[in-house]
Amino acid sequence: MNITKSYPPEKLLPWINHNESLTLKAELMGLEVRVLVLLQQWRSTIFEREIIMFCNNKPWWYGRTLIPKQTFSKRFEIFSTLSTKPLGKILFEDPMIEKIHCKSLTLSVKDLKLNHQQLGLVEKQDMDLLWGRASIFQIDDSPLYLTEVFLPEML
Questions:
Q1: Among 38, 119, 144, 146, which residue's beta carbon has the most beta carbons within 10 A?
Q2: Whole-angstrom Cα distance, residue 94 to residue 41?
């Protein structure tokens, strides 16, 4: 992952700079949202979740969440029942959860390790670089890490 100082496409700026739930933003735009869970598992002391958020049946963003065990245990009843629920709604509904850092980023399509179909790409499409944002949330002084990568269907 490379943090960069170049500028994202104009159409993505409102999404990158949005300080609230992307899911709620999409719903307020009248889009039908659906979460496809790609991975949801424990790796040692970290709970890892990877999803693709579909808007009107098109893949709009990829999300990866890392939740340390100490953080997970502070909201066990919520995190243990995530299933296909959008995490963003949960993070922004709880007044005790605070977003403490957010930075835009670029990364290579290869870095995501997803196939072209999952990303909404045509197999030989010329798309090497994707934009996103990396955020850190604080839950009772414990971190939660969220990376969101905007997929070509958004453009």
A1: 144
A2: 23
Would the pLDDT of 7 be above 90? no
**What pLDDT is stored for residue 112 in this prediction?**
74
Per the domain annotation, does 5 fall within a domain?
Answer: no
Structural domain containing residue 20: 11-154
Mean pLDDT confidence for 116-131: 62
Domain for residue 109, yes or no?
A: yes
Structural domain contains residue 136: yes
For a pLDDT cut of 90, what percent of the chain falls above it? 70
Q: Where are the alpha helices (DSSP H) in the chain?
A: 13-16, 22-28, 69-74, 76-79, 87-93, 109-112, 116-119
Please tell me the distance from the alpha carbon of residue 70 to that of residue 144, in angstroms, as a whole number. 10
Q: Give the phi and the psi of residue 146 in degrees, each rounded to 5.
A: -130, 125
Please tell me the total count of domains within the chain.
Answer: 1
